[in-house]
Design brief:
This protein is α/β, with parallel strands linked by helices and 558 residues long. The protein has a domain at 445-552: 2-Layer Sandwich (GMP Synthetase, Chain A, domain 3). 39% of the residues lie in helices and 22% in strands. Strands 2-1-10-9-11-12-13-14-15 form a 9-stranded mixed beta sheet, with helices on both faces. Helix 3 (66-77) links the parallel strand 3 and strand 4 (81-85). Helix 2 packs across helix 3.
């Protein structure tokens, strides 16, 4: 039984119970398994009338929703290939990817998206909005049909990589890729949830056009779950409290913000009671970090140890309740998470399970075992996946999760493979017992004029920790004699200088940052300096700040 057949069976078995819900303010719009099957059948009949044939591409350009889910499954059930795209991306970038995938049909979330699309691409293939697909079709009473047969190597999706450098490429994922990976995610989630008759509650806000996010959706549809979908990123905290999940998928930037907000609240001045709570919290945090080899050297003092015991009884439960009273864990992926942030949530009693993977590996290579979390590491390779280190400590991967290749890019596909191993482009380390740590990106590697190779990410992480008001830090220096940095956010010259004084002594001489430029405007997707999943576009940043960078090297040529 392939992944889609398994999902259809689960929907049938869950015909009468809520399975998907959208959060709208203080209310939930809910779909049972039976209602979702009816929506899928409605969409399938629409796709047939639109002329979709096996192997043809259908773009899905809309925010997460119950209807998005139904249309996604309907496209695959009809033998089509879904091309999910990020609805907030610039129209020109969207058109570039659509032209590359040559869809026969485009399905948009609303009229505004379709209008912007047609304005940017007047020759676009037929486009429809989701409301038309589900309200004008006459499939409500149509009998349920099983999905069309899928061979293992049949492509079911083309997911475009974020394109930190160069053009985004469409990674083709097959039915076999999804069937394999969903078996593995289910096994790991079973370890987290343990034996229970109650449906697990999951909260989700990351766009389904990302491989790991889509994988979570398909995992929930394969399991005894209730998945709550965010509809307003400005109300995440309120939505999460309403959903009261057992777990949720996150990116590091959100966890960093939550941590910063909690620490700021603990620093807030107030009456005597609040000051006592603040001192107790920070003393407990110092004790916890010392126990895990962070913070000031030496063991925790008696006072710190007492503070930690009291905080566990009085303060941490209150913080957990605000974040989510039922949280068993948060899952984190897409980029390395600072070890200290992972320890922070563990201190509160909320395990952070790290996941590492790429679109080309169907979203996942490693997953933390909830019974054996090692802070700072991303777990071990999942069963069936092999990983090893190549040249420059590049992580190489092979196994059933590897994609079919890049759509229409045979040369790029060949360059990504080496003797059957996928070249991830990530640098890593692995312990003797198989725990992996991500240390940087090969393409981001800075080669100084002295010949030293420097991975910028660990240095950026240290500087960000030393600069709580900074939004981003990007280290510069390729071909130069020393490193410099661009710092965004509301940071003063004095703050940045003190941060360098604190961080540089911890580093070898060639990894020290000698100068900086302050840029008040943060990097963002809107200004073209971040990818859609929040990664730095280093080449674009270097070009945008070319003059400012040159000023940091007054006696050097480019």
């Amino acid at each position: 039984m392939n992944f889609l057949e398994n999902i259809f069976r689960n929907l049938q078995e869950s015909a009468g119970r809520p399975l998907l819900q959208e959060v709208h303010g203080d209310q939930m719009a809910t779909a049972t398994g039976g209602e979702l099957l009816s929506l899928i059948q409605t969409a399938r009949l629409f796709l047939r009338r639109a002329g979709l044939k096996k192997g043809e591409r259908c773009v899905l350009l809309a925010p997460n929703s119950i209807r998005w889910t139904a249309l996604d499954l309907a496209i695959i059930a009809e033998g089509g290939i879904v091309v999910p795209l990020y609805s907030r991306q610039a129209p020109a970038a969207l058109v570039e990817m659509m032209k590359d995938s040559s869809p026969v049909l485009i399905c948009c979330g609303d009229v505004s998206l379709r209008t912007n699309l047609i304005r940017a691409w007047p020759e676009a293939p037929p486009s429809h909005i989701l409301k038309e697909i589900f309200e004008n079709a006459t499939a409500i009473s149509a009998p349920l049909e099983p999905p069309r047969p899928l061979a293992g190597r049949d492509p079911v999706a083309i997911i475009y990589t974020s394109g930190t450098s160069g053009e985004p490429k469409g990674a083709m994922l097959s039915a076999a890729n999804l069937s394999f990976m969903l078996q593995r995610t289910t096994a790991q989630l079973d370890l987290l949830m343990g034996p229970t008759d109650e449906p697990e509650r999951v909260f989700h806000y990351l766009p389904f056009c990302f491989a790991a996010s889509w994988l979570l959706l398909l995992s929930c549809l394969s399991r005894h779950s209730i998945l709550s979908l965010s509809t307003d990123l400005n109300r995440l905290a309120e939505e999460m409290r309403l959903a009261a999940p057992d777990y949720c998928l996150n990116v590091p930037v959100l966890l960093e913000r939550i941590r910063a907000r909690i620490e700021a609240q603990m620093d807030a001045r107030g009456d005597l009671v609040l000051r006592i709570i603040s001192r107790m919290f920070h003393s407990a945090q110092q004790a916890w970090l010392r126990r895990h080899g962070e913070g000031s050297p030496g063991g925790a003092t008696v006072t710190e140890g007492l503070s930690l015991a009291l905080a566990r009884a009085l303060i941490f439960p209150a913080i957990r309740k605000k974040l989510g009273p039922n949280l068993k864990a948060v899952i984190c992926g897409s980029a390395p998470l600072a070890r200290e942030t992972q320890l922070f949530f563990m201190m509160l009693g909320i395990p952070v399970l790290q996941v590492y993977g790429l679109t080309e590996t169907t979203g996942i290579c490693t997953m933390d075992d909830p019974r054996r979390i090692r802070p700072g590491y991303v777990g071990s390779a999942i069963d069936g996946i092999e990983m090893k280190l190549g040249n420059l400590d590049e992580i190489l991967v092979r196994g059933p999760g590897l994609f079919l290749g890049y759509w229409n890019r045979t040369t790029a596909t060949a360059e990504a493979m080496r003797d059957g191993w996928f070249r991830s482009g990530d640098q890593g380390e692995v312990t003797e017992d198989g725990y992996w740590r991500i240390t940087g990106r090969i393409k981001n590697l800075i080669v100084l004029s002295s010949g030293h190779n420097v991975a910028p990410e660990p240095i950026e992480e240290k500087l960000l920790h030393a600069l709580p008001d900074a939004q981003q830090v990007v280290v510069i220096g390729n071909g130069r004699s020393f490193l410099t940095a661009i710092v965004t956010g509301e940071v003063s010259e004095d703050q940045a200088g003190r941060a360098l004084e604190a961080v540089n002594p911890q580093l070898p001489h060639y990894k020290r940052v000698h100068a900086f430029h302050l840029a008040p405007e943060p990097f963002s997707m809107d200004n073209g300096l971040l990818t859609v999943n929040g990664k730095l576009k280093r080449d674009a940043i270097a070009l945008r700040y070319r003059d400012e960078i040159e000023a940091l090297y007054p006696k050097q040529s480019a």
